[in-house]
TrEMBL record:
Residues 1-12 have a biased composition (Gly residues). It comes from Eleusine coracana subsp. coracana. This is Anaphase-promoting complex subunit 5. It holds the Pfam family ANAPC5. CDD domains: Apc5_N.
Length: 825
């Protein structure tokens, strides 16, 4: 029976495969020697005829497997770029060693302290060969370590590296080994830990004395076997692994040894992910000091300079970021910029870089407002990907995001295709190991937390150890899906949410945004995750009002500070502007428009979407101020910009705004062509909710032409009501109810006394919705129509109440008080 057969992907998981000029074999260090000794205990040399399963000193298969998982994570962990000192290794090992009364820790320290000469090291590595070699007569049930497993490859590399060393190198290892053991000497007092004694007495009860005798017996025999030909016990302190948990780690005495090349790259990948997800959690100066130390120890690792560039960029240190970026390209020629670990042939790597360049080019064109050129670049990236690797998934996300501006109907087709590609990816690739070290790192950190809490004196800590650690140990498994693929899969849900926004399905927007925020938060970047929160908060504002939206915004700002998240900053400005317009606080609305103008200036950025939104909000503010000529000028200029850059969705919105401007300026005839054009655009691109809004505006324009057109307007209202009532927000629903009531009241053939509910029911619903939105102008219109209806019915008291509410909203609109309150939430 092979132990951990094939774990880590076999020979492909070699600890230091040549990557970007890295060394082939890992350097032998004291920490690796310690791990080799633990591997020897985990899978001792097999004896002919078989042995006990599990081997001594393990009490069960689960106990044996726990040590195996611990050793696996040690060789894959990337929580730091330096190897841990002996004290830290013993602390973590204690959580695995609790059932053997500290035997593993004691045996490890005795073995390491007994390595005092080159001959000792030679005998030690010669002994390790027996772990990988099956003796004559061994059967299939014998416990062996698979040479192609992660631990087997690690052991083979260490043996080969030692055999390749010079005599001076062996002497250097011995000197480092002395310092490594001295760093933990006299500071690990396991036997005197009262809590440990209490726990062990509860676990082992009356037979602990007999078991200790067995351990003592095997201690003597095992030590003799480990150090044949020399009397090393005199050099080893009896309690080298004893230490007090309260003491600080003696890292100054520990030899500075880097982890393997693969672990270094995984560490840098992990730090790059942290910078992308939450840059505010990374201190600029301290992280730079860490990277400087790593660069000093490994000057050939140019990705450190790339991380320094990312660190400076995320903290708005543009001069430093530019300097680090130039230095990175000067030394590496850009060969290590993509944080990936690939074993592909060089030709595939070149193709991948060409595809990455096309994606970057497409993203830049999209950012600068060149959708046609962006689509060309993305289409070429898909073509190259299909020709060489048959994995065009990477290109679908940016391709779909660009088409959202030009043809949203094609987005779902791209997303469905990407889902099929992801399924194929799972069938082909996910069967192999894609562990990037994150699971191993998390497992070790959890192990340390469990060990520390287990040593504390409270009953609560014992409960934490028994529950939390065991749950993590048994249930948490490394995800076979790489983080980059998870990020792409999650981005499809964001794109679906945006597409459904244009289609007008609010439930689908909420569902896709919730799926992304719930299921892909761990793999998501800070920018994408904040965008999902923004979509959910926007839905709250539209359907629940500003109070609920601002409460959610406060929570989002704690998670994503405005200084680090442009999405949250823009959302705050959008909500404040909308509420100011509804309240009639035009000075505040104009102030926020000025802030939008600053953000969209060429000095701060050239995002075409931000420029479009700034102009759109400027026009709406001018419209609310009844400056119809200036509003029309801004809207016409904006339409020309959107038409130039082929932004069809924005074209439909601007045309609808122009129709609204002409309607409020009492020029309905000129507004009809704009409303009809907007309706045509919406039908062509399946913008269902915007089409319903355009149809409602068209009904208002016909109604403004006189009572003779009331029946036509009513027909258009009925045509748009299903979509509006099913998917529209508070404002759109209230507006539809008001137009419906106006159509009835303007119709000469309609009698309020015969069917009062046809007018009063929609107006009551409208006033309730508008009360939540604090929309004074529209609420005043609704109450005016209610008062008119009650007057026709002769219900004077209700008429007076409606008139009083009308006066209240008109007063708030014409004489706003405490406008500064609109900036608070």
């Amino acid at each position: 029976m092979n132990v951990f057969a094939g774990v880590g992907g076999g020979a492909e998981g070699t600890e230091d495969a040549p990557t970007n000029g890295g060394s082939v074999l890992p350097e032998v260090t004291p920490h690796k020697i310690a791990v080799c000794q633990l591997v020897h205990v985990f899978a001792p040399p097999a004896q002919a005829g078989g042995g006990t399963v599990p081997p001594f000193p393990f009490e069960s298969v689960a106990h044996h497997n726990r040590l195996g998982l611990f050793l696996f994570t040690l060789t894959r962990s990337c929580e730091d770029f330096l190897e841990p000192p002996l004290e830290e290794l013993l602390r973590k090992l204690k959580a695995v060693d609790n059932l053997t009364n500290g035997w593993l820790c004691e045996q490890l320290t005795r073995t390491l302290s007994g390595l005092t000469s080159p001959d000792d090291l030679f005998d030690f590595f010669d002994k390790l060969r027996g772990v990988l070699t099956a003796p004559e007569g061994a059967g299939v049930e014998d416990v062996l370590l698979d040479p192609n497993s992660q631990l087997g490859v690690f052991l083979r590399c260490c043996i080969l590296s030692f055999n390749s060393m010079t005599f001076e190198g062996v002497c250097h290892i011995l000197a480092n080994l002395v310092a490594y053991c001295s760093s933990a000497e006299g500071s690990y007092d396991l036997a005197e830990d009262e809590d440990y004694d209490t726990e062990m007495s509860n676990l082992m009860d009356a037979d602990i004395g007999a078991r200790s005798g067995i351990f003592d017996k095997y201690n003597q025999g095992y030590a003799a076997e480990s150090h044949i030909g020399e009397s090393s016990s005199a050099h080893a302190p009896l309690s080298l692994h004893d230490f007090d948990d309260g003491n600080a780690m003696k890292t100054d005495d520990n030899p500075t040894c880097l982890r393997s090349r693969w672990q270094l790259e995984a560490y840098l990948n992990q730090q790059a992910d942290v910078l992308e997800k939450d840059p505010s959690s990374v201190p600029l100066n301290s992280f730079n000091a860490t990277l400087t130390q790593l660069q000093t120890l490994a000057p050939e690792l140019h990705r450190v300079q790339f991380l320094q560039y990312l660190n400076a960029l995320s903290h708005d240190d543009y001069v430093g970021s530019l300097d680090n970026l130039h230095r990175y390209f000067d030394y590496s020629a850009g060969m290590q910029g993509l944080f990936t670990r690939s074993v592909s042939p060089s030709q595939d790597i070149i193709v991948g870089k060409y595809e990455s360049a096309l994606l970057c080019l497409g993203n830049l064109h999209c950012h600068f407002g060149h959708p046609k050129k962006a689509l060309e670049a993305f289409t070429e990236a898909v073509r190259v990907s299909q020709m060489h690797v048959q994995r065009p998934l990477v290109s679908f996300g940016p391709n779909a995001s660009t088409k959202l501006r030009t043809c949203p109907a094609d987005v779902c087709k791209n997303l469905r295709l990407s889902s099929r590609v992801l399924t194929d990816f799972g069938n082909d690739v996910l069967s192999t190991s894609n562990d990037n070290g994150s699971f191993s790192t998390s497992w070790l950190r959890n192990l340390s937390a469990a060990s520390n809490s287990w040593c504390s004196s409270s009953a609560e800590s014992r409960k934490l150890h028994k529950n939390d650690f065991d749950n993590f140990y048994y249930h948490a498994q490394p995800s076979p899906v790489p983080a980059s693929i998870l990020q792409l899969a999650g981005s499809t849900y964001l794109l679906r949410a945006t597409a459904w926004e244009h289609y007008g399905s609010a439930p689908m927007v909420r569902m896709n945004a919730l799926v992304y925020a719930t299921c892909f938060a761990d793999a998501a970047s800070s920018s994408d995750l904040s965008l999902a929160y923004v979509k959910l908060i926007q839905q709250l504002a539209v359907f629940k009002g500003y109070s609920a939206a601002f409460c959610a915004l406060k929570l989002a700002e704690k998670k994503f500070p405005s200084s680090t998240s442009s999405h949250i900053q823009l959302l705050r400005m959008q909500l404040l502007h909308e509420r100011a317009l509804h309240r009639g606080h035009l000075k505040v609305a104009e102030q926020i428009c000025d802030e939008f103008g600053v953000l969209s200036s060429s000095v701060c950025g050239v995002d075409i979407e931000l420029k479009t939104e700034a102009s759109l909000r400027r026009a709406r503010t001018l419209l609310a101020a009844k400056q119809f000529g200036q509003a029309a000028t801004v809207a016409n200029s904006l339409y020309s910009t959107c038409y130039k850059y082929n932004m069809q969705v924005e074209n439909a919105s601007v045309l609808l705004l122009l129709a609204e401007i002409h309607k409020k300026s009492d020029n309905a005839v000129l507004g009809l062509p704009y409303a009809l054009a907007s309706q045509s655009f919406c039908k062509a691109f399946n913008l269902d909710l915007l089409e319903a809004s355009a149809t409602l505006t068209l009904a208002e324009l016909w109604l403004a032409l006189g009572p003779s057109h009331a029946r036509r307007a009513l027909s258009l209202v009925y045509q748009s009501l299903p979509m509006i009532l099913g998917h529209g927000g508070l404002e759109l629903r209230a507006r539809a109810h008001i137009v419906l009531a106006k159509c009835h009241l303007c119709d000469p053939k309609f009698s309020v006394s015969e069917d009062p509910s046809a007018v009063l029911d929609p107006l009551t619903q409208a006033t309730e919705d508008l009360q939540v939105l604090e929309y004074h102008e529209m609420a005043a219109e609704a109450y005016y129509l209610k008062a008119t209806a009650y007057n026709h019915l002769g219900r004077l008291d209700e008429r007076e109440d409606a008139a009083a509410s009308f006066k209240e909203h008109i007063t708030a609109l014409e004489n706003p008080l405490n406008e500064e309150d609109s900036l608070a939430y």
